[in-house]
TrEMBL record:
<dbReference type="GO" id="GO:0005737">
    <property type="term" value="C:cytoplasm"/>
</dbReference>
<dbReference type="Pfam" id="PF00248">
    <property type="entry name" value="Aldo_ket_red"/>
</dbReference>
<keyword id="KW-0560">Oxidoreductase</keyword>
<protein>
    <submittedName>
        <fullName>Aldo/keto reductase</fullName>
    </submittedName>
</protein>
<dbReference type="InterPro" id="IPR050791">
    <property type="entry name" value="Aldo-Keto_reductase"/>
</dbReference>
<dbReference type="InterPro" id="IPR019546">
    <property type="entry name" value="TAT_signal_bac_arc"/>
</dbReference>
<dbReference type="InterPro" id="IPR023210">
    <property type="entry name" value="NADP_OxRdtase_dom"/>
</dbReference>
<feature type="domain" description="NADP-dependent oxidoreductase">
    <location>
        <begin position="79"/>
        <end position="251"/>
    </location>
</feature>
<dbReference type="InterPro" id="IPR036812">
    <property type="entry name" value="NAD(P)_OxRdtase_dom_sf"/>
</dbReference>
<dbReference type="InterPro" id="IPR006311">
    <property type="entry name" value="TAT_signal"/>
</dbReference>
<dbReference type="GO" id="GO:0016491">
    <property type="term" value="F:oxidoreductase activity"/>
</dbReference>
Length: 253
């Protein structure tokens, strides 16, 4: 999906947080989506889900939220779909047909942002998402990530790589794997101590101007680094792992 197709935001940050607290992360499960809709009605007094547009018995996400502001503003569905666990890192995985069906169902239920990364199986997850999104790329956005170092397809755990050359290489690979012309958000997966964040931000700014990404973001990063990066190229989103099984961010920021 291209930026001009984004609709106006219809939900506040506070409203989004209240809704996601009710729904959790299971965006493909009908009961969770029903809670999203119910919470929206409780907060706003109405629901943005229209019975005329939703098949009988199908819960859906129709509310939206806007990340960041100004030129960095990005309007997406109030809940997104994290694709990593489909075929990488989370114990047993569904078969490919099931994964594709889940993504299609999420789209039909109103999800417009799907998140993946180069490092999720070294292109494996991106290729799965790309296969699932064939015929749907005008309706959704995809975010991916750069920054880990790989040698012959194997991640070097002791090093990161956010050099401009690697950022561009990962971007081109992601576009090809996903079958899209533009990435919705391109995240730095981890900070690279050897590459100044200002250089990373400038490279992402160039990719934005070239039309290869709409926005950029950062993962697992402290406030000072965010401020430095934002001065060079406005940051749209920050991803940090935070859930019931991982709450370290409450202590280390």
């Amino acid at each position: 999906m291209k930026k001009e197709q984004i609709q106006e935001n219809g939900i506040s940050r506070r409203g989004f947080l209240k809704r996601t607290a009710l729904a959790g992360a299971a965006i493909c499960i009908a009961p969770a989506l029903e809670k999203v809709t119910a919470a929206e009605k409780a907060i706003t007094g109405k629901s943005s889900v229209s019975a005329a547009t939703i098949p009988a018995g199908m819960a859906a996400v129709r509310a939206q939220r806007t990340l960041s502001s100004g030129k960095a503003a990005f309007t997406i569905s109030a809940m997104g779909f994290g694709c990593m666990g489909l075929n990488h890192h989370r114990s047993q995985s569904p078969d490919e047909k099931t994964c594709i069906r889940l993504i299609h169902e999420a789209i039909e239920r109103g999800v417009t942002l799907f998140d993946t990364a180069e490092s999720y199986g070294y292109h494996k997850n991106e290729k799965l998402v790309g296969e699932a999104l064939k015929g749907y790329t005008d309706r959704v956005f995809v975010s991916s990530k750069f920054g880990h170092k790989f040698v012959n397809g194997v991640q070097v755990k002791t090093e990161e790589d956010s050099t401009p050359t690697n950022i561009r290489r990962v971007c081109e690979n992601s576009l090809r794997n996903l079958g899209v012309e533009t990435l919705g958000i391109f995240y730095q997966h981890r900070v690279d101590p050897a590459t100044p964040i200002e250089v990373v931000a400038e490279t992402c700014g160039e990719l934005i101007r070239e039309g290869k990404i709409l926005h950029w973001g950062m993962c697992e990063v402290n406030a000072e680094t965010i401020r430095r990066a934002h001065k060079v190229c406005p940051v749209t989103a920050i991803q940090s792992e935070y859930h019931f099984m991982h709450r370290a961010v409450e202590e280390n920021g």
